[in-house]
Every structure is written in C-alpha cells, then in structure tokens.
C-alpha cells in the first residue's frame, strides 16, 4: 500500500514528483525515492524517512531530468532503509523501477536470477523486477523500439502477486512504461506532458483528464502521447475520463471518510495478508518465524496479549490455536498482564498483536514476558515498529496504513493472519487432520470475495442504522467466536457513535443483563455457528419477548422466526466467521455515526496510537 508518481514532459520532473509524493504520504511514509532520466542517464535519490527529508536530499543532487518516477513506501518486505527504498535498479543501472504491491514468488525469482549471475542489494521483493527486465531485454535478439516493452511484459509474465509498476530505462530514454495487476494506476493527460500515479489525488492539481488502467494492460508513455496494449501486447484504445473531484475527496479515493475507504479496502488487505503464505496441499510458509516441532510440542501455554480491537482479534486466535494445536491459550489485556505477575517460563510462547506496533502497554507486556524467559512473537502492521524490534520474531499483516482512528482493516487482517499462524503451528506439530486444514485453507482463500459480496449489499443495514441512531443503549450478543465479534462490534459503536453499548456472551444474559432489556431497546446478535444455533436463538427469543428490536447477522437458515432485520452473510468455517460477520458491524457503527453527523475518522478523546500508559 505504497504510493507512486511519474512525470514525462517539458518541465523538470523533480518538483512535480515531490509534490505528488507529499500528497500520497498518507499511503506510506517510512521511506521515499525518485529517479529521473537526463542525457540517457538515470539519477536516483532515495532515503529512509519522510518525503520532506527526501526533498532536502534531492535539493543537493543534480536531478534535472524531465522524465521521472517516484515512490513513497510502506514496508512489506525488508525494513525501512535506504537500500530497501524505491526506485530499485538492475545491476547495470539500465532500468529503474517503482512498484506498489507484493511479489509473492520473489524468492524463486531471486534464485533464478542469482543463478544467471545477478546479485541483490536490498531485502525487497521489488528488486527482482528491474533485474528480470534487464535479463529479458538482453535475451531479445531483435533491435526495434518495442524491445523495452517486450522485456517489461516478459518480466511481468513471471510475477505472481499484485503490482503497479513504472519503469524508465537509459536504453529507451524517451518513455515510461507502466502496467498493473490488482493494484491501482492512472495516467493523467496534460498538454505535451503526462502524469502517472497510483492515486488520483497526487496529480489532480495538474490535470483532471485521466486514463484508468485495467489489470494486465501495458502503456508506453511519451511526452506527447501514449500507446496502450493488452496482455498480449496487442494495441488497444482507451477513453479519457474527466474526474471532477475536489482535493480532499480525492485523498480518500472518493470515499467520504478514511474509515469507509478502509472498510472497503478489506478484500485487498485480506488478500495481501494471505499473500503466498498459504498454499493449497502444501505446507504453510511463514518465512519470518522459525519455531520447531519440538519447541511447539514443549509449550505448556500460549499467551496472546494486546489492547482494544487487537485483543478482540486475539480471542479469535485463541479459539483457532486451541482447537487446531491443542495448546492452552490465554488472552489478556496488555495493561492488565503487565501488572498481574503472570506465570511465565521457557515453556511459554507470548504473542503480541498491535496494528501500530507502538502501543505502550503492549510493548511493556512484551518486555516483561521476554525478561522471564518466554519466546515472543509480534504481529504488527508496521514494519520496523517498536514492538517488532523488541520481539524474538515478527510477522506482518499487510493491511497498509490505517488512518481512521477506529480500526477496521487491521482487525480482519489480524484474524486472517492468526488463522494462518494456527494452521502453520498445526502443520508443524501434526496436531490436526489434514482434511480440516485443507478445508480451512480453501475457506481462507474465499474470504476476500466474500467480503466483497457483503460490501455490495448494504441498503437495508443503512436503513436499520438510521432507525437506531437516536438510542442510548445497544446490546450485542453471541456465543464462541460470535461473542468475540460482538465485543468488537460494541467497541466500534461506542468509539464512533458515542452510544453506550455492551457485548455479552449470549448464555450470560439470564445471569443479570437481561434486567436491562425493555421495549424498543436494540439487540444485535451474531449467529454463525450451526452447533450453537438453537441455543443462541433461544437467547434472542428471550429479548424479543421483552420487546427488543433485533438485528441478526447470520449465515444460517432462520425459518419461522421473526426478527426486525436479518442480515445474511456468506457461509464459512465458524473459526473464520469473524472476518465476515464484523463487516456489517463496522458499517452499522459507521452509518450511525454519519447519521449523528459526528467526525467518524477522529472520534472525541481518542488517538490512533496509544504510546503512553
Ligand atoms: C479500536 C482501536 C483500538 C486499538 C488499540 C490497540 O478501533 O483502534 O482499540 O485496537 O488501541 O492499538 P494497536 O493495535 O495499534 O496496538
């Protein structure tokens, strides 16, 4: 989830590229870089840190070309550093590339290129691309002006994963070649100049006329024109679109708020978190951790420690790990764990979940477990964050920067990653039958599309939220994993709508909370586990009888029951259902907050990263 910009025209590229990067910084900000072409030579400046620091550095360099590409990075492979920043070049410095996305088969491609004599300066997946282009360019014995394009296409044919790519070459210094697959890219048309970007806002101040690129299309972009090609390099025509957004709407990709944008990004962030880790009929690959069968078998306990939403993701992880690996798992709130003298020894694995990787309590809880001999594993969304520097092992969700204070896409990425980790542990231990693991894998692969399906049908939910927005109390009920999601749904509602809400394990209702149910009160229930269905329905009937207004989120058949609203979600394994059932809950909170005209992205009293106790 990085940002890319490009320019070709009569003006100096550098200030245009820096201006574009500054507008894209919200997409990634751990490092940035630019390459420009002048007199058939590529000059490149890149640096760890913010775009303003790159600008200071670029001021001191001779970057006068009027063709250039640029990138602001959110690390996925390799820590933030100058070497890992984009642009990347081939060993002969003939091709310079910026890339958004993840190349899943990069280690195989690295091996292939290493055998051909190429070497690598970074830990990134991207560096294989300029070297592959170089390799294919010199494999091609013909010598025509399409040779550069053919080399880019042949390199892309080898790539698995997602990418939006810009390439310049000292061997064809009159053009930029771009292509995309599962990662956005647009071309902005000016007069005798062209702009390129992953996101419209970066270049909206220069032009409002855009070509929107589709997957597997290639473009040769010149100062005065552009040539479009399909996946077989057959020439195609594309229409210009006039995009009349204002700058603020554009930064949010046309969404009203970052939170809504992030909710809609979930199919992609889940897909990128799965990446190439999970493989059908093959062992799961988690390059970043190395925990042997003997070590896992020796464990007497796993702790999962986190705060807020990340802790609720941990509850889903507990269910997965206990059931697939047969190891007891205790989930705890970091601020409690650190002060309660927990029982920890060498046979303890402590897993810490933190989107930001900077939450003070979670870091302190990690240091405590480490000092008492536990092995520590961090799950974070930010490469190189404090928690990942402290932990013995780190593994990343690839959700991209989360700007809205209320966490959405980080949660679904955390649950997805925890399911992958549970499968990895189970495969290593041999603790679970292969049939179940294969079923789970195939259900995980389906999640991104199923989230898309939920996101495509929201009108009834919006209408229900409108009815509820003036209320003062809302209850959420569920059993098992549905209870874990009820907690997260309740937290979302509190945070952004300021409505008091409580989540209860449905079976607890009769032990007290049912006293609060009175006519008209809203109860949201989640029902996704067929084994617990009858019991949960009885609990909902108890609140219906007392006059509650009921929203039921389910993937089960509910005949002969009358609830005020039933929202159907796709079927999946109950271990994974939180990834799907949380989506309507995120939107329920969002629509209520909008109806109340509140600031969805920056709710009162809250901060995105809680770096103090
Ligand atoms: C809720 C929310 C918070 C965070 C919590 C932990 O929407 O965002 O509850 O989940 O503050 O933050 P991280 O994951 O950054 O440690």
| Residue windows where pLDDT falls under 50 for at least 5 positions | none
CATH secondary-structure class of the largest domain: Alpha Beta
CATH architecture field of the largest domain:
4-Layer Sandwich
Our Rg estimate from Cα atoms comes to 26 Å
Q: How many structural domains can be distinguished in the coordinates?
A: 3
Question: Numbering strands along the chain, what is their spatial order in the largest sheet?
Answer: 3-2-4-1-10-9-11-15
Number of helices: 19
- The total beta strand count reads 25
Largest sheet features: 8 strands, antiparallel
Helical/strand content category: alpha/beta
Mean pLDDT: 92
Strand portion:
15-25%
Bound ions, cofactors and other small molecules, one mention each: fructose -6-phosphate
Ends: how far apart? Answer: 30 Å
Fraction in helix? 25-40%
The CATH superfamily of the largest domain is Aminohydrolase, N-terminal nucleophile (Ntn) domain
**Would you tell me which CATH topology of the largest domain applies?**
Glutamine Phosphoribosylpyrophosphate, subunit 1, domain 1
How does the overall form come out from the CA principal axes? globular
